[in-house]
TrEMBL record:
(6R)-10-formyltetrahydrofolate binds at R64, N106. The gene is purN. The active site is at H108 (proton donor). It comes from Citreimonas salinaria. This is Phosphoribosylglycinamide formyltransferase. N(1)-(5-phospho-beta-D-ribosyl)glycinamide binds at G11, S12, N13. Catalyzes the transfer of a formyl group from 10-formyltetrahydrofolate to 5-phospho-ribosyl-glycinamide (GAR), producing 5-phospho-ribosyl-N-formylglycinamide (FGAR) and tetrahydrofolate. It comes from the Bacteria. GO terms for biological process: 'de novo' IMP biosynthetic process.
Length: 195
């Protein structure tokens, strides 16, 4: 199974995914694509011998369809079977998502359905939540809304800040996403919970 990974930033989740796909793992990373030229994750992917692509969304202004046509063209030579969104910060259209229905995963830094969207750590702290965490879900046209494939949770500490919480949640992300991807590549879609 060939896995394409879409990133926009440092790529720590991408790295965890790529490093997990070894030995008897049924999948391998075939491409890492960024919408941000020079994103830190591209160099990390190249250092691991994975092909890299860049499709700069700014070149397409508000024309999402044109951006996605360019995405398709960049991905096609690598023929991914599954797409993993890993800190990919562009909202994809329903048309693109439906073309990858059942074959695209995303990691989100909250315990969905709570805190869809941005600034999840600050919002969880502001709401006085006792628990927080991250979610891997199948991507559907509604933002951060698809079927949950896995969650990992932690207890919020009294002295947590958005930054410390983000760092603690990212450690969970790096365990959860590879676990869910492996299960998904093996055809297992029952949700898995990490505590
Ligand atoms: N959507 C969020 O964006 C962050 C990306 O980090 P990285 O994987 O690029 O390091 C992750 O924390 C993810 O939950």
């Amino acid at each position: 199974t060939r896995v394409g990974i879409l990133i926009s930033g440092s790529g720590s989740n991408m790295e965890a995914l790529v490093d997990s796909m070894t030995g008897d793992h049924p999948a391998r990373a075939c491409v890492v694509l960024s919408n941000v030229p020079g994103a830190g994750g591209l160099a990390r992917a190249a250092a691991r011998g994975v092909a890299i692509e860049t499709v700069d969304h700014r070149a397409f202004g508000r024309d999402r369809a044109a951006f996605e046509t360019a995405l398709d063209a960049a991905l096609a030579p690598h023929a991914p079977d599954i797409l993993c969104l890993a800190g990919f910060m562009r909202v994809l259209t329903a048309d693109f998502v439906s073309r990858w229905a059942g074959r695209m995963l995303n990691i989100h830094p909250s315990l969905l359905p709570k805190y869809r969207g941005l600034d999840t750590h600050a919002r969880a702290l502001a709401a006085g939540e006792a628990e927080h965490g991250c979610t891997v879900h199948a991507v559907t046209p509604a933002l951060d809304d698809g079927p949950i494939l896995g969650q990992a949770r932690l207890r919020i500490a009294p002295d947590d800040t958005p930054a410390t919480l983000a760092a603690r949640v990212q450690l969970l992300e790096h365990r959860l996403y590879p676990l869910v991807l492996r299960r998904f590549a093996e055809g297992e879609t029952d949700p898995v919970m990490l505590d």
